[in-house]
Design brief:
75% of the residues lie in helices and 2% in strands. By secondary structure, the chain is mainly alpha-helical. It has a two-stranded antiparallel sheet with strand order 1-2. The longest helix is centred in the middle third of the chain and has 49 residues, at 151-199.
Length: 507
Amino acid sequence: MLGTLDIIVLVAYLAALFAMGFSFARKNTSTEEYFLGGRRFSGWVIGLSLVGTSISSVTFLAYPGDAFRTAWLRFLPNLMLPVAVVVAAYFFLPFFRRGNTTTAYEFLEERFGPSIRVYGAATFIVGQIVRVSLILYLISLVLQEVTGLDAVWCVVIGGGVVAVYTIVGGIDAVIWTDVIQTIVLLLGGIVCFFVIVNALPGGIEQLIGVAVADGKLAFSELRDGSLHEVGWNLSLFDKTATMMLLVGLVMFLTEYSSNQNTVQRFCASKSDADARQAMFICALVSVPTWAFFMFLGTALYVFFQVFPTAAAEEMLQGARKAEEILPYFVAHHLPGGLVGLVIAAALAAAMSSLDSSINAISTVSIHDVYRRFARVERSDRHYLRVARIIAVVVSLVMGGGALLLLATETKTLQDTATIVLSLLAGGLLSIYLIGFFSTRGDARHILCGIAGTMLFTAWTILSARALLPETLSFPFDLYYAGFLGNVVMFLVAFGLSFFWLSPAKGK
């Protein structure tokens, strides 16, 4: 249970977030302010906000959990963020900064027509609902482990706080609280790491020595209860280092071309230069932060080798969820006061992603669907009111999704998150690449590509679940579903443009 000092630290932190949310409420008199903050943010502010958005509970809990139980294989995709940022900064950004763009999906209508815009918006909304449900679920593990509260109350508290300040404060509250939460998140992780190193008899030397000896710092996969170092070959059937890097490149190019959480930050920046600066800051801070939290998981492994417990052994063997290891350490090995700080850090990790997604879903729902197709000629005050209602609904759905995940039996969620988000990507990266770099293709070609990608995704799921005859199955690793989905989209859509000419070109 939490001590008095821990409760004071935690309550003070949550009160500060509430205060920031309500302090920005007075500014939100228009959708331009509510969604984009008047387009006046500096690069360093947007950059730290992007870090907060990308570094979620998956970083704070799933990364240490995965490194604790396995090794560093799933860190590899993160190394491609700087490459994706350079490409996006100089080739993608100009398309989103021209005019008064608000969402990533306006470009799709401009280039391919309204039907493709709706597809992009719908894909984003569905994918983000899955993501925020997963993040809220992860933070509920922390609260439940440390406070002893019922799981339902943990979901209500974790989701309720972020929902209130996001709905009230709009993008201003989202961005500025993300800056603070990024700092708090890092402080919480650093505190845990130094407590571990101080407790180990041999300090950092012992930590590294045990980790190297047990293969915990290698790019290895856990198979049949033991770690197996992966190769660098190309393969669709196994996880290899090269394929993981390729997965990362596709993932981050998708993030910086079609993810409203990111593109909305581009649009909120006060200049092109500030938007680029924000992207570079995000890459420079995010990659070392991800590496640190992976190393924290390795440190937890060494700590519980030296000071073993039954609970830690169950998590190591897969009898309990690996994501519980950091909350378990916090609850049983941190002194009073520091527990409150680390819980605040865990909440920061969750909130910095949840608030961004809630606001972005509201933005897309209003700008790309409601105002564009349902209620075209209403007042801006009407759209602002509906935006807040949508944010409330999203918050409720997010809570329901987290409760559903609490009932699942999966023992690790790093794989689950990657696979689910890959399947929901829907070939969006290929759509944007065709739109950015080619004049070929129109809505007909893209819709055929979408149909082909959906059929491929359905076939992938059925094959993975052994629901098809063996002759129709191709059981490649589901990590590659997003990459292959983009290949299918490109081949179908771009290929058809050479044979099925547009009316103008067919004359």
